[in-house]
Design brief:
The structure holds two protein chains of two kinds.
Chain A: H1 17-34, E1 48-53, H2 59-70, E2 74-79, H3 91-100, E3 105-110, H4 115-122, E4 126-132, H5 138-152, E5 159-163, H6 170-181, E6 185-189, E7 205-207, H7 210-216, E8 219-222, H8 238-245, H9 249-254, E9 260-262, H10 275-278, H11 285-304
Parallel strand pairs in A: 1-2, 1-3, 3-4, 5-6, 5-8, 6-7, 8-9
Chain B: E1 2-7, H1 9-27, E2 33-38, H2 42-57, E3 62-66, E4 97-105, H3 109-118, E5 126-136, E6 147-153, E7 159-163, E8 173-178
Parallel strand pairs in B: 2-3, 2-4, 4-5, 5-6
Antiparallel strand pairs in B: 1-8, 7-8
Helix pairs in contact in B: 1-2
The chains are: A alpha/beta, B alpha/beta.
């Protein structure tokens, strides 16, 4: 099979294991392409993609834009801060206006969970969710699992701990779906106030002690504390959080086995991850960034095949 | 559905030997030349030719695999997209003679895509095309092979089926299939 089961990539929840494996196999080829002297292929030269970002982003947006350019697509960028959204235009109107300019694919980030699903119901273009509120961030989960597969050979049977602010993290939810579909065991770890109440119903283990989580896992995916989404205080101070949940090189060395440290970025150095841990040989954080471009190329290439 | 055998394994062996001789005539000891097999099925032909050439010249010859999927011009025009394969070109083709190898030459579109894909690895001095089966009178583009195993007259509705041992078939065989 060489076709995705979906027309859009709205979340990992909606796609199958076969879809994920097809994306990985295609991404392998694109990773090879972006390491060549000429990093470009002409596949999407007749496709126009709009990057519609209603929320701030550096890494994801840059990664998507690079992926589009390496596929030779035409790209238009839109960010809410400089647009008519400020003047009171609705989401559907904004996007319909962009579509009227003949755009084939939309990459969207929005602060409201479900925004890309709403759009998918109303417009014809392919939609890639680049993060919707605290809901899903599918391409991040794909590149995380792709990086685990690259580092450890496969995802099946591996133990992955997701550590930090699970409550506000779309990366956590997408990662849980992706890891479970690929046959990994998943644990979430964080202060009780930052763990969603019913998270265990997703079939993940819940652990409050970070040392126990690290001793259990093969891979630790460390998440950032999303202060911008926290309207109330979930823990006394960042200093205290770092004391109880911060991962340092000293802690990693005290484990009797090598584990892989991942982080979706941006890192708050000295809070969830100390500098010496982030820069240690355990960390594959920059590999994740590199793989992000290849995985996003694969997603857009496979979706464009269905336009 | 009617099947007609175009090449059996004995005849194929003779054809390959002849193709190798022709290559040696033009490329001497292959010091400045390299072979690029086109994915997915051209690589089996390229491997067979590569083996024969290394055996008769008693030296290492560069062999690479080229996948043209991302360079095809029929992407988004096909019902089912083509799956990508591995590209492995472990040498620079800058200023070298490159022999593109594929099993069947039909419309010439794959070869066009291959030339496009190849440029990512340098600017070759000269590019040649070797095909096992040349389906005459079916070209969409002005592309002609330099080395031909066998030229056959075919209708656009017919299909050439190539069975390689390396793909798990009993024998190397090439068939012409009439589709009803």
């Amino acid at each position: 099979m060489s076709r995705l089961s979906q027309k859009h990539l709205l979340g990992i929840k909606d796609i199958t294991r076969q879809d994920i494996e097809l994306i990985f196999e295609t991404a392998d080829n694109f990773k090879d392409v972006i390491n060549r002297p000429i990093k470009k292929v002409p596949s999407l030269r007749d496709v126009t993609v709009a990057n519609v970002f209603f929320e701030n982003s550096t890494r994801t947006r840059l990664s998507f834009e690079l992926a589009q350019k390496r596929l030779s697509a035409d790209v238009v960028n839109f960010s809410a801060s400089t647009s008519s959204v400020k003047k009171g235009e609705t989401l559907l109107d904004t996007v319909n206006n962009i579509l009227a300019m003949k755009v084939d694919m939309i990459v969207m980030r929005h602060a409201s969970p479900g925004a890309p699903h709403y759009l998918a119901k109303h417009i014809k273009a392919n939609i890639v969710n680049a993060g919707d509120g605290t809901h899903e961030h599918p391409t991040q989960a794909l590149l995380d699992t792709f990086s685990i597969r690259e580092k450890l050979g496969s995802v099946e049977g591996k133990k992955v701990a997701i550590i930090g602010d699970i409550l506000h993290s779309r990366v956590a939810l997408s990662n849980i779906f992706a890891l479970q579909k690929l046959g990994a065991k998943v644990m979430v770890c964080g202060p009780p106030t930052l763990l969603p109440k019913y998270i265990a119903q997703l079939g993940v283990q819940v652990e409050l002690d970070v040392m126990k989580a690290l001793q259990w896992c093969d891979v630790a995916n460390v998440l950032r504390i999303q202060l911008e989404r926290q309207q109330i205080k979930y823990f006394p101070t960042l200093r205290e959080y770092s004391l109880y949940y911060g991962i340092t090189k000293k802690i990693l060395d005290s484990l009797k086995k090598p584990i892989v440290i991942m982080h979706p970025g941006p890192i708050n150095r000295g809070v969830e991850l100390s500098s010496d841990a982030a820069d240690s040989q355990h960390a594959i954080i920059l590999d994740q960034v590199e793989n992000g471009v290849a995985v996003r190329m694969a997603v857009m290439y496979l979706l464009a095949g269905q336009i | 559905m009617q099947k007609k055998l175009i090449l059996d394994s004995d005849l194929l062996d003779i054809t390959l030997s002849r193709l190798c001789q022709q290559l040696i005539e033009n490329h001497n000891d292959f010091a400045d030349s390299a072979i690029l097999g086109m994915q997915p099925r051209g690589i089996y032909l390229a491997e067979l030719i590569h083996q024969k050439l290394e055996k008769s010249l008693k030296k290492k010859i560069d062999l690479g695999y080229l996948d043209v999927t991302f360079h095809r011009d029929d992407f988004r025009r096909r019902e089912i997209p083509v799956k990508a394969n591995e590209t492995r070109v472990p040498f620079l083709i800058e200023n070298r003679n490159v022999i593109l190898v594929d099993d069947v030459l039909f419309t010439g579109r794959t070869v066009r895509a291959a030339m496009d894909a190849m440029i990512a690895f340098g600017r070759p001095k000269k590019v040649e095309l070797l095909v096992l089966i040349d389906r005459k009178y079916n070209r969409d583009l002005p592309i002609a092979p330099d080395y031909v195993g066998k030229a056959v007259n075919t209708l656009a509705s017919q299909r050439v089926q190539v069975e390689w041992q390396a793909q798990g078939n009993k024998q190397n065989k090439i068939w012409l299939i009439n589709q009803d």
